[in-house]
Design a protein that fits this description.
By secondary structure, the protein is of the alpha/beta class. The protein has a single domain, classed as Rossmann fold (3-Layer(aba) Sandwich). The protein is built from six helices and five strands. The protein has a five-stranded parallel sheet with strand order 2-1-3-4-5, with helices on both faces. Helix 4 links the parallel strand 4 and strand 5. Helix 1 packs across helix 6. Bound molecules: flavin mononucleotide.
Length: 180
């Protein structure tokens, strides 16, 4: 059974290292899973319960559908001002009520071991949304990678990213299929 993993970067910056990580995840993914990058969090309106009603904004429907179709989620995010980038927090706020993270395995990766706040805050938010954070790790990267090739070209980082996907894969597999 193929496991679908949705990969999200918390940075909208062109040449973003976190964007490069989620693109690299597509390349290094184990055979048993398909990784799709969700590029639309920057298109979501600012969350407001008044507009969280039918007909929902098109961008919100795309976000919720992408999450519903995924068995697991990979998030790679920078830390901004000791917190979660607003664009990513806004995206998460849009699915608090609709519940797409419920029971879903999530792996958190980032480029810097010196960004503890974003990881702790994402863990807290995802946990209160009933998501299952199964891994939080910093990839052993050197320099500031800006493309997927930069990451795939660093064997230690590529292996760590593949290991993160493997952890997600095992967490998302039905118990009967967990052979490893
Ligand atoms: C507005 C802003 C605030 C930042 N605040 C922090 C911070 O609090 N802690 C930290 O470790 N890095 C901070 N950084 C550095 C970014 O997390 C870092 O440059 C990251 O690698 C950028 O990710 P990206 O390449 O995916 O855009 C900040 C960067 C910006 C632009």
């Amino acid at each position: 059974m193929t496991i679908h993993i949705l990969a999200i970067s918390g940075s909208l910056r062109s040449g973003s290292s976190n964007g490069a990580i989620v693109q690299a995840a597509v390349i290094v993914a184990p055979l048993e899973c398909v990784v799709t990058v969700f590029e639309g969090i920057g298109e979501l309106p600012s969350f407001n319960p008044d507009i969280d009603v039918e007909p929902f904004p098109e961008s919100v429907l795309r976000w919720r559908t992408a999450l519903q179709q995924a068995s697991a989620v990979l998030i790679s995010s920078p830390e901004y001002a000791h917190g979660v980038p607003g664009v990513l927090k806004n995206a998460l706020d849009w699915v608090v009520g609709s519940g797409e993270f419920m029971e879903k395995p999530v792996a958190l990766v980032n480029v810097s071991a010196y960004s503890p706040y974003v990881t702790a805050q994402l863990q807290e938010t995802l946990t209160v949304m009933m998501g299952r954070v199964v891994l939080a790790t910093s990839l052993p990267l050197t320099g500031r990678p800006s493309t997927a090739a930069d990451i795939v070209g660093q064997p230690d980082a590529a292996i760590a990213l593949r290991d993160a996907l493997d952890t997600l894969l095992r967490a998302a597999q039905p118990a009967t299929e967990q052979v490893r």
